């Protein structure tokens, strides 16, 4: 367990006295109430899309990542489809809303010009495993005044998920569940199966991934990044640290893109992939002031177009090179070239170098999830998430793409 009081915060992004005062108080409260021992790792992520996008979205994940399709089930008014790497890394649940009634996701998406085109598509949030859900609810509800979508039942089934209300800062939710046994399981009303044609498409997608030898290089989710407004940055981070066992690793200012990248990491230790890092990206100054400093606003442009939401998942790539080392053809270069040959589109070339510590690239936004996929190779055990030059280039490429109509 990390002693976050003794950890030196990284980066050059300045935070307010308010931020650091409450950061220390949050850490103290968590320690006193043993929250860091109650909350464990992320169990799964939830992404919602519309029903006609389910099969192509699953095919995307199978073709572009090491995740495999496991099974589907119906619970209450949602149908869920489970993608899994292994029993340690978080699953990805792709869900569709079966109810004819419009939910809060629909209304959130209706506020912004590009998200309202497909108002049922959104990253919902991450679900954490906990040791004692009742105890955690008592602390969060009674002491910290956290609002949940429903009161915790006096008696709840194993695998029941206790969802917070959507955050006013990120529009995402946090879920908590007690894991009843070592096997990763879900609360379901009934199982559900795809037809033979869909299963054949899944097999073809996974076979392509494996036949290209991508299974040797592509790793599970490394980190996930949400975009928010500048005035919400510090509050969104403090809220997340209140609700989880993550700690504030640091923040870097990306001056020429008028933004900062802020990283929170989990306390569970190695491998970090069991609870990937959470990144918050926000403008340094609001877009309406950009005429005064002449700087671009790619981060806030995204939020204005799509709303506060998750921007991308990053998949790790094993460190190493292909062929003669002198040719400097790295694993991530191979992965991207193979995916390009399979008609996956990217926003730019692979950015960075192993001399700088890492190489990374953004894909184009998926039409089926509105999420970007990043591929990131850390070289020689580089212990960071970006270099300032890399992030500036990635942010600019994504910003240019967002403005395409």
Structure description:
- By secondary structure, the chain is α/β, with parallel strands linked by helices.
- It has two domains: 37-207, 2,3-Dihydroxybiphenyl 1,2-Dioxygenase, domain 1; 210-402, 2,3-Dihydroxybiphenyl 1,2-Dioxygenase, domain 1.
- 28% of the residues lie in helices and 28% in strands.
- It has eleven helices and 17 strands.
- The chain has helices at 17-32, 35-38, 54-64, 104-109, 133-143, 196-211, 233-243, 290-293, 298-306, 331-341, 388-402, and strands spanning 10-11, 39-48, 68-75, 78-84, 91-97, 122-130, 162-163, 173-178, 190-192, 218-228, 246-254, 259-266, 277-283, 309-317, 351-353, 358-362, 372-378.
- Strands 1-11-12-13-10-14-17-16-15 form a nine-stranded mixed beta sheet, with helices on both faces.
- The chain is globular, with a radius of gyration of 21 Å.
- The protein starts with 9 loop residues before the first strand and ends with a helix.
- The model has no long low-confidence stretch (mean pLDDT 91).
